[in-house]
Amino acid sequence: MGLERYSEEIMNLQIGKEDVDNVGYDDDRVEAQARLWEHIYGFARTLVLRSAVEMRLPDIINGNGGQPISLSQLAAGLPFPDPNPDSLYRLMRFLVYMKIFNESTDVANGERVLLYGLEPAGRLLLRDAEKSMAPIILWGSHPDFTLPWHYMKEGLTTKDDATAFEKAMGMTLWDYLAGDPVKSEMFNQVMASESRLLTSSLVRGCEEMFKGLESLVDVGGGNGTTITAISKAFPHLKCAVFDLPHVISGSPDIPGVERIPGDMFESQLPSAQAILLKLVLHDWSDEDCVKILRRCKEAVPREGGKVVIVDVVADAAAEHPFSKPRMVLDIDMMVFTGGRERTEEDWKGLILKAGYRGGYQIRDIEAIQSVIEAFP
């Protein structure tokens, strides 16, 4: 039904203003319904985003020299023939509503033409962008990784302590990835994407903190991506990465960064002025976190030493752009690994149980994670 026909039929109902005023409605009830409708179709936003990434819509627009592009130009760049113009228009209209793209108008040959440009969120979907979130969207919306969310109820039982992912797939996430090279590479791309987003924000947001340090060990630092960026930004720092022997042996040599193999639960941690724990503790139980924090405390000096925790600080009541996604990440951890994101009170409790007497402070950076400095 065309817009004009729809409007005409509404007018033919002949409902006057006084009739509308007499009907009335409960504002709270309407708001409640609207909220539920938004949640019911929350999955649609995710899958619309996925389709935009799969069709490389942001890249097609960006390929026009940064200038807005018409619908026909966009259609010509799609990776399949004969796209339906009306369907493409409606998809773009929704993506404009989602603030992925923006819409403007021009006049060509006496006709009004719609043009589409990139919003900041759209630029984060460019495949080759340094801070591209495209791999995260493709991972999160993949059928294999949406299925475990349907087993959330089964994952709540304490009978066998299995996660929702294990209930859905019959194995842990790590076993699943080990047996599927394609999905494992997807996961690696997600981790690399998250690391690029976080590391640049960490370096910029904690410049003063890093400049005040003399030595830093990245415990559980994997292939050294984060410590490499920190070392390059702050060349005065004596840096090292500490991880399991097979991780260290498989990681590249990093100029200016010492690679040290070991187990953070069994080996003595290398001494340094500061220990970095980036995205480590959210994978572990409270009891294990206390053990890790105690071992880290032993590796730094009592005076002038610190342990730098980079992880989510969840707070449902906070007025912060990342508050909602931080809460969702906690459920994501519960579904996939059995880990958890923690509130400030949770972090405070772990830090105190681990014997830190110097207190702590939290820094917000331009990332979904925060920086928690714990002082021995």
TrEMBL record:
Residues 37-127 form the O-methyltransferase dimerisation domain. The keyword Transferase applies. Residues 149-357 form the O-methyltransferase C-terminal domain. It comes from the Eukaryota. It holds the Pfam family Dimerisation. Coiled coil: none annotated. Keywords: Methyltransferase, S-adenosyl-L-methionine, Transferase. GO terms for biological process: methylation. GO terms for molecular function: O-methyltransferase activity; protein dimerization activity. The keyword Transcription does not apply. The active site is at 282 (proton acceptor). This is O-methyltransferase.
